[in-house]
Amino acid sequence: MLRDDSEIAGGPALGATAAAVSVSMGLEVRAQMPSRRAEICLVVLFIMSRSLPVAAQVPRAASDSQAEPQFEAVTIKHPDPAAQYHKAGFYGTPGGRVFLGVNVRMLVEYAFDLRDFQVAGGPEWVNAGWSISEWYDINAVPPDSSASRKIPVANAEPTSEQRAMLRSVLRERFGFRYHMEMREGEVYFLVRGAKKLALSEPKHPDGDPRAIVFMKQGGIVDGEAEGTNTTMDYVAARLSERLRIPVINQTGISGSYDFYLPPSDPENRDMATAVISVMDRLGLKLKKGRGAVETLVIDAVERPTEN
What we know:
alpha+beta
């Protein structure tokens, strides 16, 4: 794997910004709230949201996973329909306790570290989107003996052990069964560009990865971008989520990096243009092609009993 330190250029660390809304490299818009974690996710459906590449290995069949670790306690409930906000996504806290606001399809994606285009099959209600009747608030606590109990900081992505525990939840509480298939289709390859890499060593190598392109007041997307402790696999995975097409990392760049890019086009309002520009300024580019993508096919799933 290529890691040429002579080609790594640093940039100033990004402090507090005036941006009211930020867009991740996967084009996910999150409202910034001063007193709580972002609870509203608005997805920008612009054809121009995790840490492993699309071709990552996942358990081959449900029967292979019987010995996987389990949470000590799990509660599954529908959210309060009268609540003003509903949390969406995965929230991990120090000590391994987790909360998920998900539908079943999202739970599968978290448990197997897949993008939505890698999940197929199942009954219609699995794909019910934001319908409150098919949305679940899941709280879970790992056993004292688990490695998750030693997690020192909050995490926005499940660890490998937490993903395995989520697979156990799917199997035990949702009657989940599946098989894997390889399906060929259009892909993007993330490759090295012609420019020098604008990457620096991570300041916090134990932190969650981030890759953000900022959207500012009035819809301005001026090319300001920040990455913290991010790998090329992570960048590719975030792009995959919003492109809804597999993005495969072929940069040959190993390790984790930080980056910061200052604004470059103060009048731009086109997200696709901004993202392509950010890739170019980082010394990367996307190339279209075809490839095989591992796809999880749902064979059986049931609605859980609440507790």
